[in-house]
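Researcher: Batch entry, complex prediction.
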Amino acid sequence: MTQPIEVKVVERAGTFQLTGAAEGEALVFSQPLSFWGGIDAETGEIIDHSHPGLGNNVAGRILVMPSGRGSSSSSSVLAEAIRRGTAPAGILLERPDSILAVGAIVAEFLYGISMPLVVCDIAGIGSGERIAVGVREDGGASVRKI
Amino acid sequence: MTLELSALDKSMLGSEQGPSVAAAMKILIAFSKAVGAGSLLDITGAHIDGCLYHGKAGLDFVERLVERGGRVRVPTTLNVGSFDLIHPGMVKMPVAEEVPARRLMKAHLELGCQATFTCAPYQTRFRPEFGQQIAWGESNAIVFANSVIGARTNRYGDFIDLCCAMTGRAPAWGLHLSENRRGRILFELDIAGSEPSDSLFVGVGLIIGQACGDRVPVIAGLPKPRDEDQLKALGAAAATTGAVALFHAVGITPEAGTVDEAFQGTVPEEIVHINRADIDHALSRLSIVPDGAPLRAVSLGTPHFSHDEWTRLLPLLRAVAPDRGIPIYVNTGRATLSRLREEGSLDGMEAFGLIPVADTCTYVTSILERLDGVVMTNSGKWAHYAPGNIGVTVAFADMKDCIQSAAAGHVVRGAS
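Model: Structure tokens for the complex:
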């Protein structure tokens, strides 16, 4: 016999820089991470020795951070990681980032893989929580804890 | 901010101009929205920093545009690639890497880009004019175009420089707009009596790059440069240690007749004083090698050597006549090289160890025969990047010291 389980749904709205749906475990950083020099596109591992996430792996996670950082070569690294399947399942940012947006758009254009890139409030999301990103009727992003 | 599109922008987006243009416009629009631009503007030229092979995604992008019949819409120059196509065999690379790297350079030509393969497009016939809107990649070229010429570009990079070239458009934001070109931080040079040597300009560049962050620097008290190559060296150094895309030098660069003009009537947010000791300190960090260290090679021409620089180097080589077989690599644009060859200026110069390198640069690919010793350079940029990129030990010095050292076989500084 199954009892109905009350699921606490916390949903917030966001804006897509690249539209898509994704689900995964959150990996949250208060410090921005540069993909170029920060992530090994072959494995998804964080290799930036000055970043607190060193040694973590972004592959399949929902990467949450305030903003992007660093060189425009990060576009290539993100596109290459998406191609290889080592990229995050989705990225949530507090502020739009032109460099990550370009990488995600180019990867979608070339490989048909949509890694959602969302600008939203990231407060209250903790590492390890499961997050679902979906597309609302108005085209905006919905970000839910599940 | 909403992004307003012109009728032509919309027609490009809607595939009426072909699938490659539509893809480029789609990417450009997403980028423009991300940077908060309100509209796009026309550009008169582009410079693409996409010919160095960094992975499959970069090549796939260009190949896809080629397959779908893409052509650039404005005159477009190309930055260095991984190969010297003029001197086959100079670059040593495994075949598995060589094939895609060569293809990347060729695929750009199929899009209608010009085979310049130089990091100094401002030395070519495609040099922009004052006030022109352009979309350039390559940090030294960007800072030169904005600062020395007064053309207008932001720091464009991966994929976006090509999307601008394919559409002839760029986001109306940043340094394309007059108000964002005003100075924010003032550097006052207190170096009266200093000789305006090449290294002085490099040292000033290193310092402002480190100190100004993303703020436009204004330099007051800079000695009048001998030529634009000294400003080239300053800008390249500043864009190496920092994110400088535009500097003003009061009384020297075109948007800085006076301090007030450079700041567009506003007050500097910060004033930094630079003296001779600061410059010496910045330069000493590029060169930890003591005098007398055995020398393996000399590398000049980062950014690419101009015709004027060659005109100073060649008589010096003849006068000093190094004969120890130490290679003196000089990176330069292929157009400059053809001109020198036509003039006969390089005849017999190989006896002194001279090895001209075109289309690429000695710190981005494997050219140097020996990496186990000291390489001397007059470039702040080369001195900064080469140890990490190719693993050499660097000694920085003025060109004359580099050549004297090649003749002596070991590092000599302050030679007279």
